[in-house]
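Good morning,

Attaching, inline, the backbone tokens for the sequence recovery test we're adding to the shared suite. The designed sequence is right after.
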């Protein structure tokens, strides 16, 4: 390392965790007597020739990202918003950067926008700048540990998100006990463990001295979580407790990461430096057990016996206890009993309870009408309530990717775990491959031009025939399972096994080309067809037979793999190569030498790579240990692999299991996660016509419906974040009605978790509402067309409108305006496939008066594909759309058309179209109409009058913005629409 680098790294260390100050002047102090140029110009020149992995550049990016994301309460920020251009300009000013330097900094360190969203009730601020940084030990150590593999922006976002959580806990020094309860919403397999690890590290620094972490219900998840915390937060010194590493009998004696020195090392036992030790009451091998010898491990030491534990004199000199338990009734019962034995002092312990997978087992599922004094709660929920009652200074934070059950908990039950204080929605992390990567979110593919547009709304209803690997995630990553006879199902499964072998060989090829081998340490395939063990063992037998006859290195086997490589793997990898930079083989000849090596890794000491994962005993026997072994296996299972447990290296998924609840189905999506080094190789083989109840269901479309629910929930949280006149716009108690249901048979969560759910009226100005459950019988279709004629007639001016994206061009449309009464009369009279569908939205519109709505602009886009004469309207273009899920359309509107409606309703900023701007005025709503048919017409363009019993008039509606100057909560009205349904356990929430 050069003297120049040493000087700047020293300068960066000097300002870390402090206000920005001139780095080059500090570097000059470091360079005194060295005779080297460390001026600002020299730094600029250094950055211009550096690469992203350069140590000075990386460390500078970390501190810059930290300043960008610092809370506005820091004394140097002048109240500039975190992540804003104003904040960055202030930082540049305090760094004393020239215009040239600012340009170079912008190029090397682009501003990152944090998309973490917090819905919060009012709280008492305490976690200010001083408390965040003094004393601070475990958080900086964990942050630096993550910096080994995380980028600066990711760490800055992570820092802010964990601070948002800790800020809303009660101050551990507070004299009056207060219990805060919150919920953190992540994505499936997206790094929630890292977030609560960061919260735990900050909480210990802040003064929390009992940390109880509840994982899922299986041992493998608890063990996996214990290891993560031990390795990344607790550190080797706290694990061995002063015994020499070579002599210590620890959990991890055979763990490659322990042997290789990859566990965090503090360099000393923290208590020797007047810092809190972490005393583990559980280990990787052993869950919590009743403590003996007077439960001394739970006796918290006090320096000043005259003061309570939470007094500063005691708290900062006291060691923290860490308990990591699975959600098991007897284990939690033992923990509650042990705590009760120190009841005279337990009230003084600042405690943090983290509930991972908090919608699993933690929810009270007893029907409220059947709860008794003897049995008011389910077992796990009762023990959690017992912990909260025993520990009055305990804070509860639930973590989940599927929060629907949590927000349906009765908020009036003060002893339950409803997140009354805050709900935090985490940002989708960089490098994460989630549900949106397997579906086409409003790709906007027009049958005429087949182009792609970016949007965050579901499915534009494009014809599957128009999808290609160039424009469709589905075509890239999803492979249909459609066979139902035994021979056909086995052929489809055999193709998935071929993909498993082939992608393993490609991973070894990439490793040989110099890609980081840690990305390919594990290589797995998931087979999930049924929750029943007998079916899983049958599937394993079929797989063993497929494997024994695979002959992957034989001439016939290599021909199969070559065909798959050339038709499937290579085309997709070439398309994604520019964004991934993965080494892509030129031909199968580059890969074939690695096939035998891949098979050998899959079968090191056995005949086949199949592991059935349906009990902890089976897992132990088969040594499914991602920590100590290199796992290249095909995993067959169900529930054991559907919750929390991370399947490392998962590349091929074969999924055929239908479910009736959105949260359970989403958690089964183990193909979500981080896929560094092999994103282009991931394939999902999924059932498109699977048995379900008395019929069948398309599992891919079911996941798409969940995607809509999830995206809407997150969008709604973001919309209602913030405050009006100092009061929260929406509190956590008001969040449940933001959960929707788009497919009648796929409820958000189990009915037993929705006793508090109620059908509600929603007002969502700015967010398009698009019903898709139109009837398919000719009589109802004709009736609906006649209902919509007044709206079609209202759009009587032909115009050309702009598309507000780069290179978006324009489109033709008829446009006009109708009164609110006309819109309401048309929508009210529509018939739907299911009675009451869209009823909540109609009720919300009916509540609006002429004083609330100045009018509705109607837009009817005119496409080039097909046109006919509509009775009483005139010649109009028709849109071709197919129903996707039974009678439900997958989606109707196009994002480039909806943006005009959103601008008219004042939901988005001006995008420079005078024809749109000239029509804008306050309290204006808008909708886009699509006369659509379900088959292509010949000839495409004709002057004939069409039979309107074949024309469905679909629409996308944007409600007008509502004046919020009164300080009231204007956006959501929470009422029970159907009093007759008020006591039912679950009520369908229409889209």
């Amino acid at each position: 390392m050069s003297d120049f680098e040493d000087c700047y790294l020293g300068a960066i260390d000097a300002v870390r965790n402090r206000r920005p100050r001139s780095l080059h002047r500090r570097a000059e102090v470091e360079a005194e007597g060295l005779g080297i140029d460390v001026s600002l110009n020299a730094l600029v020149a250094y950055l211009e020739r550096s690469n992203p992995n350069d140590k000075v550049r990386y460390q500078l990016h970390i501190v810059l990202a930290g300043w960008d994301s610092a809370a506005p309460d820091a004394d140097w920020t002048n109240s500039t918003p975190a992540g804003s251009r104003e904040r960055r300009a202030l930082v540049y000013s305090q760094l004393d950067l020239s215009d040239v330097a600012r340009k170079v900094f912008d190029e090397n360190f682009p501003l990152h926008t944090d998309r973490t969203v917090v819905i919060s009730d009012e709280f008492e601020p305490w976690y200010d700048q001083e408390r965040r940084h003094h004393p601070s030990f475990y958080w900086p150590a964990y942050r630096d540990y993550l910096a080994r593999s995380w980028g600066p922006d990711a760490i800055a976002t992570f820092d802010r998100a964990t601070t948002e959580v800790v800020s809303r806990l009660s101050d551990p020094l507070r004299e009056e006990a207060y219990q805060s309860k919150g919920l953190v919403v992540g994505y499936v397999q997206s790094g929630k463990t890292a977030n609560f690890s960061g919260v735990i590290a900050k909480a210990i620094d802040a003064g929390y001295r009992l940390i109880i972490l509840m994982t899922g219900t299986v041992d493998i998840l608890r063990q996996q979580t214990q290891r993560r915390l031990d390795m990344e937060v607790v550190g080797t010194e706290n694990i061995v407790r002063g015994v020499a590493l070579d002599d210590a009998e620890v959990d991890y004696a055979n763990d490659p990461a322990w042997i290789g020195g990859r566990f965090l090392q503090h360099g000393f036992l923290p208590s020797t430096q007047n810092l809190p030790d972490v005393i583990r009451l559980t280990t990787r091998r052993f869950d919590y057990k009743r403590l003996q010898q007077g439960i001394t491990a739970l006796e918290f030491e006090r320096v000043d016996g005259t003061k309570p534990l939470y007094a500063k004199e005691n708290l900062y000199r006291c060691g923290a206890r860490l308990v990591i338990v699975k959600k098991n009734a007897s284990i939690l019962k033992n923990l509650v009993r042990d705590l009760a034995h120190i009841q005279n002092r337990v009230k003084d312990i600042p405690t943090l309870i983290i509930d991972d997978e908090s919608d699993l087992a933690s929810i009270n599922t007893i029907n409220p009408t059947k709860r008794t004094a003897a049995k008011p709660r389910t077992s796990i929920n009762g023990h959690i309530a017992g912990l909260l009652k025993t520990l009055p200074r305990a804070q509860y934070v639930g973590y989940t990717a599927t929060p629907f059950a949590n927000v349906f908990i009765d908020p009036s039950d003060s002893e339950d775990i409803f997140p009354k204080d805050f709900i935090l929605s985490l940002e989708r992390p960089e490098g994460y491959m989630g549900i949106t990567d397997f579906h086409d979110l409003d790709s906007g593919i027009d049958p005429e031009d087949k182009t792609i547009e970016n949007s965050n709304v579901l499915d534009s209803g494009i014809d599957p025939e128009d999808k290609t690997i160039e424009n469709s995630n589905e075509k890239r990553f999803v492979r249909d399972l459609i066979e139902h006879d035994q021979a056909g199902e086995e052929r489809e499964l055999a193709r998935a096994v071929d993909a498993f072998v082939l992608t393993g060989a490609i991973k070894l090829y990439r490793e040989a080309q110099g890609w980081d081998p840690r990305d390919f340490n594990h290589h797995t395939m998931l087979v999930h067809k049924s929750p029943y063990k007998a079916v899983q063992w049958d599937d394993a037998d079929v797989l063993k037979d497929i494997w024994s006859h695979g002959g992957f290195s034989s001439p016939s086997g290599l021909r199969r793999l070559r065909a798959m490589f050339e038709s499937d793997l290579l085309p997709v990898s070439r398309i994604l190569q520019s964004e991934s930079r993965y080494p892509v083989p030129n031909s199968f000849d580059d890969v074939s030498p690695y096939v035998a090596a891949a098979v050998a890794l899959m079968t090191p000491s056995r005949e086949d790579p199949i592991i059935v994962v349906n009990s902890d005993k089976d897992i132990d026997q088969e040594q499914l240990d991602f920590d100590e072994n290199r796992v290249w296996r095909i995993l067959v299972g169900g529930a054991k692999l559907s919750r929390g447990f991370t399947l490392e290296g998962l590349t091929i998924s074969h999924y055929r299991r239908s479910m009736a609840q959105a949260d359970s189905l989403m958690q089964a999506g183990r193909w979500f996660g981080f896929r560094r080094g092999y994103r282009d190789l991931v394939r999902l083989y999924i059932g498109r016509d699977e048995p379900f109840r008395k019929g069948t269901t398309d599992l891919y479309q079911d996941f798409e419906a969940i995607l809509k629910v999830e995206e809407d929930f997150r969008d709604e949280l973001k919309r209602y974040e913030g405050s009006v006149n100092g009061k929260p716009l929406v509190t956590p108690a008001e969040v449940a009605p933001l959960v929707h249901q788009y497919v009648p048979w796929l409820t958000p969560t189990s009915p037993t978790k929705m006793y508090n759910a109620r059908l509600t009226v929603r007002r969502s100005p700015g967010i398009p509402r698009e019903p898709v459950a139109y009837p398919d019988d000719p009589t109802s279709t004709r009736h609906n067309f006649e209902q919509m004629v007044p709206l079609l007639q209202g759009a009587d001016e032909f115009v050309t409108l702009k598309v507000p994206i780069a290179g978006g061009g324009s489109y033709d449309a008829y446009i006009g305006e109708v009164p609110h009464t006309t819109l309401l009369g048309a929508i009210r009279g529509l018939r739907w496939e299911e009675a009451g569908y869209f009823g909540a939205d109609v009720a919300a519109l009916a509540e609006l008066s002429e004083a609330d709505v100045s009018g509705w602009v109607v837009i009817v886009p005119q496409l080039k594909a097909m046109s006919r004469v509509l009775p009483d309207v005139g010649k109009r273009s028709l849109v071709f759309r197919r129903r996707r899920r039974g009678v439900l359309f997958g989606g109707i509107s196009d994002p480039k058309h909806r943006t005009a409606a959103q601008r008219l309703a004042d939901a988005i900023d001006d995008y420079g179209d005078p024809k749109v701007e000239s029509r804008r005025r306050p309290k204006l709503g808008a909708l886009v109409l699509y006369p659509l048919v379900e088959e292509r017409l010949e000839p495409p363009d004709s002057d004939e009058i069409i039979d309107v019993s074949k024309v469905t008039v679909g629409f996308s509606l944007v409600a007008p913005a509502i004046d919020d100057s009164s300080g009231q909560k204007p956006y959501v009205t929470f009422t029970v629409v159907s009093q007759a349904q008020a006591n039912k356990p679950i009520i369908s929430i229409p889209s």
